[in-house]
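Open question from group meeting: does this chain pack into something compact, or does most of it stay loose? Before anyone orders reagents, we agreed to write out a predicted structure and look at it together. Recording both the input and the output here so the notebook holds the full record.
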Amino acid sequence: MKKRIFIAINLGEKIKNNLAENQKEIEQKFYYSFDFSPIKMIKKESLHCTLLFVGEVEDLELMEIFDITEKAVEKLENFDLLINDINYGPNKENPKMIWANLEKTKELMQLQTNIERAILNNGYNAEIDKKYTPHITLGRITQWQFKKINPEEIPDIGKDIGLGLSIKSIEIMESFIKKGGSEYCILKSFPLEKNN
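Structure tokens returned:
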């Protein structure tokens, strides 16, 4: 049976709690103005930063992906970065989601590039984002509801949060599509080397 796989950075409880508070604030802005929210918020426990969506793979392929990923990150050290701000994504003119933008550090971009190249070079047709934008999806916008709002009345949700994040491992995750939204579970974790 095939599994829907992606490679991600998971978040600690403190970070998730902070982002969940911001999700509530955004929903309140919409309810206050319109009595409805066109945003389907991601559950707190599911918040993460995707590095690469691999797609559907067989169990045997999964073992190979574990090996490929382990080799791709084995010499990389852990690092810190900031969650800069929260806003509409990919832009306010045509938003599809609400997201928290991550700082594009050299270490983060190297990590993402290493994983992407390793998976592609081994013949997997992963979903490639030509211009990778590191972010945490907080909510997905329901387009037909959002279009009911006059553009000049769209709430300003932009907020600088400057939240520090320590990246000590990456995970291979499985995605399950459920009626109430996607759910995820960790299949394997790969620690990054300690930074001396």
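Observations to bring back to the group:
The first strand starts at residue 3 and ends at 10.
The chain has one domain: 3-191.
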